[in-house]
Write a structure and sequence with these properties.
CATH topology: Rossmann fold
CATH superfamily: Vaccinia Virus protein VP39
Bound molecules: S-adenosylmethionine
Helix content: 25-40%
């Protein structure tokens, strides 16, 4: 069905994941997920012109659309689900917002590398991994899979639910103690997120958060893909873990293959941050504990026709 042939009422009535403006003043009836505001805030620091981008878990492609509007040369959207009218929705979003990108439903993280290789896409300048980590049965393995899609010097932007605690832990959502729904599995503590990102050769360079309980938050982190793990002084585990990695994950990609001659992607941070000074990486827990949360405006949780980031 063509977007021009459906009525305003049909657009407003259908249940969507996102609230997206498809016609001036006419929005789909999606929820206004606060997490997407965090991802967008960090995307605004990115110069995406001419880049190749991958949006993992795209749903109705709000983030993919923003990447395309920011001038990306190519955007690939993948989603684990295959909604009956998914392609049609995506086409409406593309038509309304005047963008183009590839959309692939039914792609789980464990199949991502194979699916992208079939498209002759081996790595990307920008990978967005937003709202997914806590849905995963194998969070570290799948974080590595997402990491293996970004070229050296590129950017991986991760957003997730997290627990504000000093513990280095993955907390099981037993008895729905943190979040309702069987799809919410492990909630990562902020120090564990900080540590695992640096273990898998990602340097956190920007961060925003939104807390909704004293001990829980949503956090988004911009990470630069670097050529080695980033341990703090005296920590030998990251190197040992990386040495073991190829044997542990048979589909692990050799990250040396992600090295390119291309310059590191430009990124501009305007947020107040706390740092692990010696390694020049954001200290995520200290940033959450000592800086202000992001103020979320209505325009950040829905996609307006005029939006550019
Ligand atoms: C909460 S939505 C997040 C949507 C979007 N990325 C955002 O931040 O607004 C969760 C997404 O996780 C994806 N997902 C869940 N399990 C997955 C898996 N094993 N592999 C790939 N994607 C998965 C789903 O496809 C869904 O799009």
């Amino acid at each position: 069905m063509n977007l021009n042939t459906i009525s305003d009422n049909e657009i407003k009535k259908a249940d969507w994941y996102y609230s997206i403006e498809l016609r001036p003043g006419v929005f789909t009836k999606g929820a206004k997920h606060p997490n997407v505001a965090l991802t967008r805030e960090l995307l605004s620091g990115l110069k995406a012109t001419g880049t190749s981008c991958l949006d993992i878990g795209a749903q109705e492609a709000l983030i993919s659309t923003i990447l395309a509007k920011k001038g990306a040369e190519s955007v690939t959207a993948v989603c684990a689900q295959n909604y009956p009218d998914g392609e049609q929705r995506i086409n409406w979003v593309k038509q309304a917002h005047g963008v183009s990108f590839d959309y692939h439903p039914c792609v789980l993280l464990e199949d991502l590398q194979t699916a992208m290789t079939q498209q002759e896409k081996y790595y990307f300048d920008i990978v967005v991994f937003s709202g997914i980590l806590y849905h995963l049965i194998n969070p570290l393995g799948d974080l590595i899979r997402a990491r293996s899609m970004v070229r050296s010097g590129g950017i991986l932007l991760i957003e997730t639910a997290a627990i504000i605690s000093d513990e280095m832990a993955l907390f099981l959502n037993a008895n729905e103690r943190f979040s309702p729904g069987g799809g919410n599995i492990f909630m990562i503590s902020i120090p564990a997120l900080d540590y695992l990102l640096r273990t898998v050769w990602l340097q956190p360079i920007d961060c925003v958060y939104h807390s909704f309980r004293k001990t829980r938050c949503r956090i988004a982190v911009t990470c630069r893909a670097v050529d080695a793990p980033l341990p703090l002084e005296g920590d030998g585990w990251m190197d040992k873990f990386n040495f073991m990695l190829p044997r542990r994950l048979s589909d692990f990609r050799d990250w040396r293959a992600l090295k390119t001659d291309r310059a590191p992607l430009e990124y501009h941070t305007s947020n107040t941050l706390k740092w692990h000074r010696k390694i020049n990486a954001v200290n995520l827990l200290e940033t959450v504990q000592k800086t202000a949360p992001l103020q979320i405006r209505p325009s950040m949780v829905r996609l307006e026709l005029g939006a550019v980031a």
